[in-house]
Amino acid sequence: MQGTPTEIATRHLAETSRWKPMEFVFWLVAFGAIWLLPSHHLILNEIIITALFAMSLDLILGYAGIASLGHAAFFGFGAYFAGIFAIRVIGDPLTGLVLATLASGALGFITSFLVLRGVDLARLMVTLGVALVLGEIANKMTWLTGGADGLQGVVMGPVLGLFEFDLYGRTAYVYSLVITFLLFLMARRIVVSPFGLSLRTIRDNPLRARAIGIPVNRRLIAVYTLAAAYAGAAGALLAQTTQFVSLDVIALHRSADVLLMLVIGGTGYLYGGFAGAIVFKVLQDVISNWTPQYWTFWIGLILVILVLIGRERMNHRAAVLWARLRGKPEPRPRTIVGGH
């Protein structure tokens, strides 16, 4: 590739920003499920909300290298904010969603200064501490949050004043899907921008990033705030579509589950959160129907097998099979450098 470094970088950004055919297929299937799977809208709504939550974590883990055990803090904060707003102010879904997203982003901005003071294990413990503190606050402020009984009496108005939430989850799924798609478009644009490239540089080598003039702390604060806002939006969608909020939305297992989804789907390419959420939720639904008491055992076993075999090896074998079916040369195995 010829040209100046600026021209090469510009061409690279233009290439990575182009939509791939499988991306169109993915979203066509997602929107087509509105008509193709009319009896599964409730679980589809849960999957798409969980996928948005996983994508929010991928923004900091996959692109900035910030591991978090307390990302559910923002998910739960957004859920409680949207639920309380609907009860005490107005039940308009879009207004509540926007305000919950902004409030969660503000919380992420405030806590980012605590998180970025440490590195590695210390940073991980700070994220966990923030979630535990918020969880205890939600538990003690029963007059506002309902405490252990949950936030009840959430009544949502129709979306855009036209579409009522129904028992079958159709409106809920369409509403969550459209919001998730719009947020995905924005996230996709961000990660293929110079800002996104700077985040990957920071993830791979923060010292080198500082040496070439990248404002590391400001970049990390910005992406942490953005990820918190996305998680808050996911929590708000859950509160609005289920019309109930409990302490479960901010529990430790919520953060652990979303980490597992990224382990399954992969980090650093946005769709990993969607793939992980689909696989995890479908497995949870199928296995829990098969063996309600031991479904976590089987998911754990599948996760162990996935780690032992290696996702890259599985992806390469799938790519080889696809190339053979299309009659094209087999792709070479991808070499992983630096763990990414």
Question: What report would you give on this structure?
Answer:
This protein has 340 residues and is an all-alpha fold. The protein contains 15 helices and no strands. The longest helix has 27 residues, at 216-242. The radius of gyration is 21 Å and the shape is globular.
Features:
globular; single chain; mainly alpha; ABC transporter involved in vitamin B12 uptake, BtuC; 15 helices
Show the helix and strand layout.
Layout lengths: L4 H13 L3 H16 L4 H21 L10 H17 L4 H23 L5 H20 L1 H4 L24 H22 L2 H11 L1 H6 L4 H27 L9 H14 L5 H20 L4 H15 L1 H16 L14
Helix pairs in contact: 2-8, 3-8, 3-11, 3-12, 3-13, 4-5, 4-6, 4-11, 5-11, 8-11, 9-11, 12-13, 13-14
- Average pLDDT metric: 83
**Structural domains: how many:** 1
In CATH, what is the class?
Mainly Alpha
Major sheet description: none
Q: Please report which band the strand proportion falls in: under 5%, 5-15%, 15-25%, 25-35%, 35-45% or over 45%.
A: under 5%
Number of helices: 15
Overview in brief:
With 340 residues, this protein is mainly α. The chain has helices spanning 5-17, 21-36, 41-61, 72-88, 93-115, 121-140, 142-145, 170-191, 194-204, 206-211, 216-242, 252-265, 271-290, 295-309, 311-326.
